[in-house]
Structure formats: C-alpha cells, structure tokens
Write a structure and sequence with these properties.
heterodimer, A: 352 residues, alpha/beta, eight-stranded mixed β-sheet, 15 helices, 41% helix, B: 200 residues, mainly alpha
Chain lengths: 352, 200
C-alpha cells in the first residue's frame, strides 16, 4: 500500500523570522565583529611578525606547543572566539601555547624568501619560545603551508622538536585542486606568474583573496546557510567571524611567493628531495621525532593525496595518521583542531 | 497509511542551492579546463605585468621630477629598521651564547666547588681521624714511657738482685770458706789432740 504524504504549508514563526531578518540586517549593515584574543603576551617581535605566548590555565604538560599557521592567511582563525578557539581550548587542557604570526609584508619585505622565513624568522622564534618556556624540547604544530614550513624546518635544523603535528599539509604537489590542464601547464612552465610577481614585488592581499575565492568556485553555500540559519544567533556570530577572517587577507612577499610556486607547485621539489633552504638540502627523511598527520574529509583546498606521502618520507618510528570529519577552515573555526590533536599530544608531552 | 510532512521553505532552498552549486561548479571546472583559456590567461598576465611595471616606472619618474618620496623610498627607510632589528637579533643570539657559556662555566665551577668541598670534608674527616689516632698514639707513647720507666726500674731491681745474688754467691763462697776454715780448724784440733796424746 503506497504511503500518502500530506504536505502541510509551513507555519510561520514570527519570532524566528524576526530574528532571522534582524540578524541578516546586522550582517549587512553593522561593522564586522571584533575578535578578542585569549589572554596572551607578545614574547618576541621581528619586522611585522610577532610571537605570542598563551599561558596554560592550569599547566598540566611540560612540553609547550608552538603553532605555525599558513603564510597565506591571518592566524587569528586559531583564536576566533572564546568558545571555539583552538588556542583557548589547548590552554584549557593544560598546554602552554606559542603562536607565530607572520604578519603582512610590505614593499620593504619583497626580498624575503622561504629561506629567510624559515631560518631568520621561524627558527629564531622557536629558539625564543624554548628560552622563554625554559624547556629543552617543544612540540611543533603546523597548519596548511605552516605545516609544510614546519616539516622543512624540522628536517634541516637541529631544533629540539619532540613532536611534530602536520594538519591539512600540502607536501606532494604532483596534484592539486586546479583543473588537470592547469596543473600540467603550471608544471610544464607554460603557465607562469613570474613576470607578474616581479611587477608587483609584493603580492597584494586582494590578489590572494581573489585566488582563494576562485579556488572555491561558486561558493554560495555559506550565504545560503546564513539565510536558512539566520535565526540562530550563535551560528550568525560564527558566520560573521569567519566572514571577517576570509576577507581579511594578507600580502605575500614576491620572492617567497615565486619560490613557492616554482619549487613546490611547478617542480614539486620537496617530495623529490631537491628543495634547498639556506644551502641545506631539505630531506624529509631527517625527521625522526613523533609525527601526527591530520587531514579533513571535506578539505577542498588541500587534497588528502597531498598530505599522505609525508608518512612514507619521514623516518619517525612513532607516526600516526588521523582523518577528521571537517573542512579545511571549519576544523579551526569550530575549535575541533584542539580536540583532534590533544589526545595524541597528551601522551607525548610529559605530564607535569 | 499516511505521513504528514511540513515543508520548510528554507530547507528546500538550501537543498536546491547545494544542487545548483554543485552543478555550476562542475560546469565551471569543465569550462575552465581549457588550453586556450590557459594561453589567454598567460597572455593577459603578461600584459597586465607589463602595464604594472610601466605604471611603477612612470610613478617613480614623476615623483623624481616633483621631488616627492615614493613608496619605494619609504620602503628603503623601513628596510633600515629591519636591518637594525636583525642586528639586534644577532646580538641577542650572541648574548644567549654567552649566557649559555656562563651558565655552563658556572655549572662546572659549582661542580668543581662541590668536589672541592667534598674533598675538604673528606680531608677534615681524615684529619679528625688522624688527630684521634695521634691522641691515642700519644697516650700509647706515655704508656710506653711509663712502661719504659718501669722497665728501667725493674732493670735496677734486676741489677740489685744480681748484686744480691752476687753477694749471696760471695756469702756462699765466704760461708764455704768459713766452712772450710772450720773444717781445717777441726782437723787441726783433732791433729793437736792426736799429737798431744802421742806425746804423753
């Protein structure tokens, strides 16, 4: 017997509708929300970069965490709101956290290369953190390009890295999210941005924002979600914070951008073991510390196949691969990242 | 059997938009995956780059003529600050190295002092032990002296005894002699008696 489905017309809840349209009006007309960071202290500054220290609410572990975010975006996505802050949730769990903010380069920084970023900035920042925390070892947590840089630095330096966490990390550039013909054109050199990079000297934030938008295609989902869930104040607040972060792009040093495009996207030197930083060959097999690699199921910016090869390239005996039910940005936006790394780190961070 | 379902227009709108988004993205991806478009983009990037370069050159030229600083001039000054910062960083690293060396030297010194103190304590203990031994040795020496004295005294006694012995021997000899004399006297008396008797 066939089921008879009776469709009822929706009963309009006036209160819900009022909240929805009021929130939408707010989004369109009010200034973007102010992001209040977790309690922190600037430990070291160099050029535009800042090393932030977030003390643990109740210190539980001896080994502090050092977070390295992507060079392409601002790192406050890791500390976006009190409830969903990755940093905040880590400090609540008893970790002392250091986060490195690369800053947004100006014209005077056009010659900063990846070598400089790694050896003069990141390595120095980690040394400062070690000295500040008065500890012999530290856990390095790299996200996206920050993960690529963390892996590179771990393999070429003598820094006492106890644990290395790489999340949504692009290591293998033999395939990336662009259409096949574009990937081939970039890899063969028939599509090059060198001339444009030389002309701009420092890549404008608008260019990076436009690239980010282009990579997402018709990304109407977030706007539709805003309308359909507009009555939910918590969701709207989260949406506004994410919207602010997405549009708050950074500039990028031309030299580093060119090096990244040519060495990584074009020649895939990292996987081939041909990448040279500061005169040293970047050999990922030099990584012997404990390693955790995290990828997300709905990551549309960094493919799983780009992260996985690192598992075979390193020589760590203690290595773990973890797949999280999240997206590239949402894993940080929701604070899920803190809960994804915490259990693994807890057993490797020397309980106080 | 019948089911009642309330239509939520927002849910339908969301589902529809997800479908549309996916469809449009597929179309976009297919249309973008095009060699001609890549060639055109490359051409456009080249033209745009040349335009930006010319614009910057002209901007510099104009600024030079009007004698006003450009962003490049400001950047040059900012670079000096960065260089100064780098020098401070180098100095900081050197200070750290020095601090580490001092800490290490301090540790070594402390270790040395600790060892010295331990050695001193050991020496002290040995000294105390030695002084106890020395006191005992002194006591023993005293006793020995006393013994020696006693021994000397006993030797004197021995000598006296020997003297006595000698005198005794001498006395015994004298006694023997007396005895002999007595014997002789007795014999003489007897002989005298005999002689007297014979003569009578």
């Amino acid at each position: 017997m066939a089921a008879i489905t009776k469709c009822k017309l929706p009963v309009t809840n006036l209160e819900t509708e009022r909240d929805r349209w009021r929130n939408l009006y707010k989004v369109l007309n009010e200034p973007k929300p102010e992001i209040v960071p977790s309690p922190r202290q600037a430990v070291w500054k160099k050029n535009k970069s800042v090393l932030w220290y977030y003390p643990a609410q109740e210190k539980k572990y001896d080994i502090p965490l050092f977070l390295v975010y992507s060079l392409l975006n601002k790192p406050y996505i890791l500390d976006i709101s009190e409830k969903n802050s990755v940093v905040g949730n880590l400090t609540k769990q008893g970790y002392e956290v250091y986060m490195y903010d690369w800053g947004s380069p100006g014209l005077e920084d056009k010659d900063i290369s990846l070598d400089n970023y790694l050896l003069d900035y990141l390595e120095m920042a980690i040394r400062v953190a070690l000295r500040h925390a008065k500890v012999p070892e530290i856990s390095l947590v790299g996200y996206c390009i920050g993960g690529t840089l963390s892996a590179m630095l771990t393999s070429i330096s003598d820094l006492p890295i106890k644990n290395l966490v790489l999340a949504a990390v692009p290591i293998d550039y033999s395939n990336f999210i662009l259409p096949d013909k574009w990937v081939k054109a970039i890899q063969s050199g028939s599509m090059s941005l060198d001339q444009m990079i030389d002309a701009y000297e420092v890549i404008p934030s608008e260019f990076l924002y436009a690239t980010f938008l282009a990579l997402q295609g018709f990304n109407i989902g977030p706007n539709v979600n805003l309308v359909t869930r507009g009555h939910d104040h918590t969701y709207v607040d989260k949406w506004r914070r994410m919207d602010k972060w997405t549009k708050d792009a950074v500039t990028f040093s031309g030299t580093a951008f060119k090096q990244m495009l040519n060495d990584l996207y074009k020649d895939n030197k990292l996987v081939k073991g041909e990448m040279v930083i500061g005169g040293k060959k970047v050999d990922l097999s030099n990584i012997k510390c404990s390693l955790l690699v995290i990828t997300s199921t709905r990551d549309e910016l960094v493919l799983e196949s780009q992260s996985l090869p690192v598992m075979d390239l390193v020589r760590s005996e203690d290595k773990t691969y973890q797949l999280e039910e999240a997206g590239h940005v949402s894993i940080c936006l929701t604070g899920q990242f803190a809960f994804a790394v915490a259990p693994w780190l807890a057993t490797r961070s020397n309980l106080n | 059997m019948s089911e009642e379902q309330t239509n939520n227009p927002y849910d339908s709108f969301r589902r529809l938009s997800v479908m549309w988004e996916k469809g449009l993205n597929d179309i976009l991806l297919t249309s973008l995956d095009n060699k001609e478009l890549i060639r055109m983009t490359n051409l456009g990037v080249g033209m745009h780059s040349r335009y930006i370069q010319r614009l910057k050159r002209n901007q510099e030229l104009m600024a030079n003529m009007m004698n006003i600083p450009t962003k490049r001039d400001v950047a040059s000054v900012a670079k000096l600050t960065v260089q100064a910062e780098e020098k401070v960083d180098t100095l900081q690293q050197q200070i750290w190295t020095l601090q580490d060396s001092f800490t290490l030297a301090n540790k070594e010194q402390q270790q040395f002092i600790k060892e010295m103190m331990e050695f001193n304590q050991k020496l002290n203990k040995e000294w105390e032990k030695l002084s106890t031994d020395f006191t005992e040795a002194r006591k023993l020496t005293g006793e020995l002296k006393k013994l020696k004295k006693e021994l000397t005294a006993s030797e004197e006694i021995k000598a006296a005894l020997e003297d006595v012995k000698k005198e005794l021997v001498h006395l015994r000899e004298t006694k023997d002699e007396v005895d002999q004399l007595k014997e002789l006297l007795k014999k003489e008396k007897e002989e005298a008696v005999l002689i007297t008797g014979g003569t009578k």
